[in-house]
Design a protein that fits this description.
It is a single chain. By secondary structure, this protein is an alpha+beta fold. It contains nine helices and 19 strands. The longest helix is centred in the middle third of the chain and has 17 residues. The protein binds adenosine-5'-diphosphate (ADP). Adenosine-5'-diphosphate binds next to α1.
Length: 369
């Protein structure tokens, strides 16, 4: 059991690299928090600071309200799982998993055996307890690393891109296993990844990072529905959101946005008529999956576009289109007989059109449904 509070954390490495800038973050007890962002944005640095493996240049970390200043990784009682497994090559699987138990005073051999076997059962690796790491597949190695992390009862689990070295099938299996472990243990998880789909599946909340800064923290669906800036809107969701340089005008009962030459009325509940806009420029954003072939029941706008490319993706069809010399991507989940060269009508519900300030790139309205 542990809540973690990061207060105003900054980190400058020796050569002046500012890896973190004034990061504030509250991780709740038993929460699964994912740190999401591209390579180099500071995720691992933040995780290693929580672990006590490196020391922040500024700020403080509290575990259940208690400052961790000056406490090393062992004193913080955390367990960490790395991308490269970090197993002891000369020890078999049993001894690798048992290793952290050696630090517990008074623990008997029988207790160690019991705990290792119970952990191995949970991870489905009972059959390989006698093998050395070099005799294991990548997925098995990562299961052993998970075993070593959960065999004792840490207050916090930290994961640094644990699935990055695995193939797709193995990644899916282990991702589900990590989610199950979280459900079964009463422990706080912080998990680093650059993979937005992993973040969406695993996280109770996701903190999206860019350049040493947390841009947005929220439940995966909230971040997807209501990204607070262009960066988050582009990073969360796959394929990426389409962005358009657009114009906005105030009409009789609502604002209208002109996207690729077509007018879309934004509901007043989303953008009240007394909203002060700096000028008529706006960045609009539409997710590929929000273009529909059927007329929606909710308020919508429409446009006509020419199909330039069709890419079958198994579960659906990715379609590149062109409208008034602008290109964009649409994804249709149901199979359709859309063909290259054809002009089609597309519908977009006005509630799912995102609008951003072109100067600050911050969102200027929220979804209402
Ligand atoms: P991420 O985990 O998101 O890929 P990191 O936390 O590893 O990002 O790195 C953040 C920034 O800090 C990067 O610019 C990286 O080059 C730099 N950095 C990381 N570790 C060190 C180090 N030991 N010394 C100097 N710079 C570092």
């Amino acid at each position: 059991m542990s809540s973690i509070e990061l207060k105003n954390i900054s980190m400058t490495y020796d050569k002046g690299v500012k890896a973190l800038k004034n990061v504030d973050l509250q991780v709740n007890d038993h929460e699964f928090l994912v740190l999401l962002g591209p390579s180099g944005c500071g995720k691992s640095t933040l995780l290693r600071i929580v672990a006590g493996l490196i020391t922040e240049t500024e700020g403080d970390i509290l575990f259940d309200g208690e400052s961790m200043k000056g406490k090393d990784a062992r004193e913080r009682n955390i367990s960490m799982v790395f991308q490269n497994y970090a197993l002891y090559p000369h020890l078999n699987v049993f001894k690798n998993i048992a290793f952290p138990l050696g630090n517990i005073k008074g623990i008997t051999k029988e207790e160690i055996k019991e705990r290792v076997e119970e952990t191995a059962r949970l991870l489905d690796i009972e059959e390989i307890l006698n093998r050395r790491p070099r005799e294991l597949s990548g997925g098995q190695k990562q299961r052993v690393a998970l075993g070593r992390a959960i065999v004792r009862d840490p207050r916090v689990f930290l994961f640094d891109e644990p699935l990055s070295n695995l193939d797709v099938k193995m990644r899916g299996d282990l991702r589900d296993l990590i989610a199950e472990i979280h459900r079964n243990l009463n422990t706080t998880f912080i998990y680093v990844t650059h993979d937005q789909s992993e973040a969406m599946v695993l996280g109770d909340r996701v903190a999206v990072m860019e350049n040493g800064v947390i841009k947005q923290v929220g439940a995966p669906q909230d971040v997807y529905n209501n990204p607070n800036c262009v960066y988050v809107a582009g990073f969360v969701g796959s394929p990426k959101m389409n962005f358009f340089a657009s114009r906005i005008t105030k009409g009789e009962g609502s604002y209208s946005v002109k996207i690729m030459g077509n007018m879309f009325d934004i509901p007043v509940e989303r953008l009240p008529l007394d909203t002060e806009l700096k000028d008529d420029r706006v960045i609009s954003g539409i997710r590929p999956e929000d273009f529909k072939l059927e007329r929606p029941e909710k308020p919508y706008g429409s446009l006509r576009a020419t199909v330039t490319k069709c890419i079958p993706m198994g579960s659906g069809l990715h379609v590149e289109l062109s409208c008034n010399d602008k290109s964009f991507l649409a994804v249709f989940l149901n199979h359709t007989d859309v063909k290259v060269g054809e002009e089609i009508e597309l519908f977009v519900e006005t509630d799912v059109i995102h609008l951003f300030d072109p100067e600050t790139e911050e969102a200027i309205c929220r979804r209402i449904r």
